Amino acid sequence: MFVDSHCHLSFPELRERLPEIRATMAQAAVDRALCICTTIEEFPLVHGLATAYDNFWCTVGVHPDNEGVHEPTADELIERCALPRVVAIGETGLDYYRLNGRSVAEMAWQRERFRVHIHAARASGLPLVVHTRSASDDTLRILREEGAARGVFHCFTETLAVAAAALELGFYISFSGILTFRNAVELQAVAAMVPLDRCLIETDSPYLAPVPHRGRTNQPGWVPHVAAKLAQIKGIDVAEVARATSENFEALFSAVGQAASDDERVL
Ligand SMILES: [Zn+2]
Ligand SMILES: [Zn+2]
Fold it and tell me: Alpha helices, DSSP H only, in 196-237?
């Protein structure tokens, strides 16, 4: 069984095809998925998915790229963390890729937003889902300054040095379909280095469909292609990758197990 640790099923292109997408997941032995929040406005949709299906969970947070949306306080994030099936804060982080003519100094609002999210994660005891693009130095610096110690660098595309620093901080590294791209040689070297007990797999669907579906609308049922590539890189069986990444998912997002153990207590 595989887990997709990062997908955007609330986006219209996936939400409108949910029955078919869930059928593909079942056929591909993808038994769980984490639905990622990118704005507070979107939160009711992702939370709705997580409460409607017993194999979906969700996060709460505002993606660094989103502007002109509600800017939550730490308390507003913490409040939503207390809801059932909310298992992480994010996706949050820094993205200096599209500065639209601004300087990095002018992106102070993004860094402030990131600090608020880290504060909420520490206060609620939930892990962080970190997005970082063209901003790894500041991302690592702020995580250190704010004392963040639990989370994942999602859709990892950074260097070996950044991966080593993230591991040192106690974070997991999540690989997406990019790992299967022929030109992703540097990322494949990162995947060879990251210990299996710190690896997660994801689709980041609807984006970044893995080979052999590259260029199409991605979906959680295609995460086994990422697992297969990771297995090939590490020279191990795909079943071992499936087992390890599922265990890592449970260890990091420990709240996914809570509903089950509550049921057991009732029994
Ligand atoms: Zn992201
Ligand atoms: Zn994402």
Answer: 223-234
